[in-house]
Amino acid sequence: MSTFEEKRRYPRYDTDGLGGTLVFSVQAEVSNISLSGMAVEASSPFTVGQSYSVRLGTEPNCLHLNASTRWCELAHVSPDRGGSQLTRYRAGFSFDDVLSGETARIRQFLESRIVLDVDERICGRLAPSAGHSIALESTCRFEVLKLSASGLLIETESCPAEGSLQILRLPLGEEEEQIQARVASVVQPGVQGRRLKHRLGLEFIQLSERASDSLHRFIRTELEGSGPGTVPSS
Known about the structure:
Elements lengths: L3 H4 L4 E3 L4 E16 L2 E6 L8 E6 L6 E17 L5 E11 L7 H9 L11 E2 L8 E15 L3 E6 L8 E8 L2 E18 L2 E10 L4 H15 L4 E2 L5
Antiparallel strand pairs: 1-8, 1-13, 2-3, 2-7, 2-8, 2-10, 3-6, 4-5, 4-8, 5-6, 8-9, 9-12, 10-11, 11-12
């Protein structure tokens, strides 16, 4: 549902103990890369300690690696043409595969693609022909705070960009549904223990007939007795 009137057609319910998995992808620009890791810049922050799947290069000669976030910091904030602010983050990653026998394949990839001369350290920038932009894919658990037939409010450690499309794996009764959703709002994070928790408002996009039936059935049997709540406006 995309219009304000359509969104408000559906009551929103508080949930208790309902969780799911966010399957997300972040586009990033590679700043530098070495045998042991890389630094990137992106419009979304990365969770320190989070593991990501990375694909470097293009098929059929691309390199698939696993990388973990070691640090993340705010790079800069600048106004865009519409008057809002564009935020960029820098982050450093270590390649997990270096310890599992993938060093030779990483070295071969870098030797053919980095700009600087290769030495024992092998550190440089990706050549323009290799492509600077990469996608980092990961999964993260979330807790559902409120649910309706058109969207949900969740709390999670990840922070995808507002307006981005994400995939949700949501258990609805005995079925787990895979649903596409758009990030409609990102609420200022709070701290729980030592971890940042972000509140995301998401609206469902093109629900399949099966997912729609499962969602309405779950709301009817599990939530309607608890009374509707109100999700903060996005």
